[in-house]
Description:
The chain is mainly α. It has eleven helices and two strands, in the order αααααααααββαα. The protein has a two-stranded antiparallel sheet with strand order 1-2. The site of one zinc ion has 8 residues, from helix 10.
Amino acid sequence: MRNPKWERDEVILALNLYFDENRGNIESSNPKIIELSELLNQLPIHSNRPDEEKFRNPNGVTLKLGNFLALDPNYSGKGMESYSKLDEAVFNEYFENLIELREVAEGIRKITLSSDYSANVSSIETDDNEENVREGKVLYKMHKVRERDRTIVAKKKAKVLSLSGILECECCGFDFEKTYGDLGKGYIECHHIVPLNRFNDSKDTKLDDLALVCSNCHRMLHSRISEVSVSDLRKLLLR
Ligand SMILES: [Zn+2]
Ligand SMILES: [Zn+2]
């Protein structure tokens, strides 16, 4: 049985090593390649690994970096032409954004290496949007972990209620209680507004990092999470 295809998170981590100035040779005995192979094995997104032994082993990582050589316009040699569409897409997205690439890779790495975060991330179910998230699944699922933290969500709602007396969507103004009466009383969702590449590993989510939104607006925000902010959506609705 074959192992699952490389996911975006994995390609991002490999590309980040490819562009690391101190990467060393692209060969399976390189300690940095071995370290990346170990990290990929811990990533909280693949539960299905038919061939455990070969899963993201140093040879596989070496081949992936060889694929980037073939995509790199600054490389005059040949490289491995067998790259996937995803390898090419990720390479082109980040080729001129190496700072962002480093931030995203660092965020994925920190979450993977923290046993708490990693366990929380693997407990988040898959949704339709996550295949298209530029920063990959780990950071997207971490976003969901943050906004499902009941304690912080309760604090956020209590604070807004004490200041304004109502819970309404910050994008469209929808008020669940106004529409649904008692049934909607106290209901609203929280969206974590810090961009995914700005992952910060402090345990506490700040109240200002959360926006109150209705379920429709929240879905729209998640459908283009890397591009559309709460204020973008508000402007769109005002047109
Ligand atoms: Zn709304
Ligand atoms: Zn959200």
